[in-house]
Amino acid sequence: xxxxxxxxxxxxxxxxTPWDLYIHGISQILAHTITPYHEMYIVETGAYGKxxxxxxxxxxxxxxxxxxxxxxxxxAMISYKSPRNVLILGGSEGATLREVLRWKNVEKVxxxxxxxxxxxxxxxxxxxxxxxxxxxxxxxxxxxxxxxxLETTFKQWDIIISDLIxxxxxxxxxxxxTQDYFKKLKQILSPGGFIMVKAGSIAPAELDTHICLINxxxxxxxxxxxxxxxxxxxxxxxxxxxxxxxxxxxxxxPAIVDQLLAEKTTGGLRFIDGKTLLGxxxxxxxxxxxxxxxxxxxxxxxxxx
Length: 305
Known about the structure:
Blueprint: E1 10-17, E2 20-34, E3 39-45, E4 50-54, E5 57-61, H1 65-80, E6 85-90, H2 95-100, E7 108-113, H3 116-125, H4 127-130, E8 139-143, H5 146-150, E9 157-163, H6 179-187, E10 189-201, H7 207-218, E11 223-231, E12 236-244, H8 254-264, H9 274-280, H10 285-293
């Protein structure tokens, strides 16, 4: 394997924009299938370990996924302080699940993912990511389209995490980033709860999707905050949206956050602590300006980049 890292057996391209490619060297293909929802690869890379690729888009890699998943999960969990019930939409690798389960107060996690084949492939090939989180007795896994099930459930959730591929794949996600969808999430959010949404890139050339999603969420929630951090495998800054019906503290005291994490979690965090949380809460100037000046909301029939 050590020699293979310097001799890729193939190269895989990812279009960052229609004009830009990111090329990754692959040493081994571990799984490949075409499901009703995605074309999926699980591969071994020379630099970033194992990786999940859906429809040509790199989702996460075992070497740096902690940067993405800790940023996705913990700002909402820290803001709530003692979450007990958590709903995850998507998250096929199981790493989002892993991070939620670090919290000692969590009693129930319901994960809904539409693609059984991808989830099963991740369970078999990406143990480094999920760390057997699927087997935790607090977890309920449901394989289905999230939208119909959200229309029939009445249970309220302290934290809702939307870890779904952004609306570039209209077979899967075009209805899962609309006003109607976010209104359904709001109906099942506990009083004082938080929703975190994976929300596109904040790279200037790709900013439209993030701004559309932020603006769409702002038509549903009175408080929506843009968060971002750099994901090395993507060569870009990933955007998130933290949403609530009450104000969000975007300047948390790092010492208080560190104490909360020490008391409420099982530890093992590699990215998030009090200082890092304070840092990623500070939205860049150009993103704030775009949010202030642009009004376009997400329309599944309008092409976004």
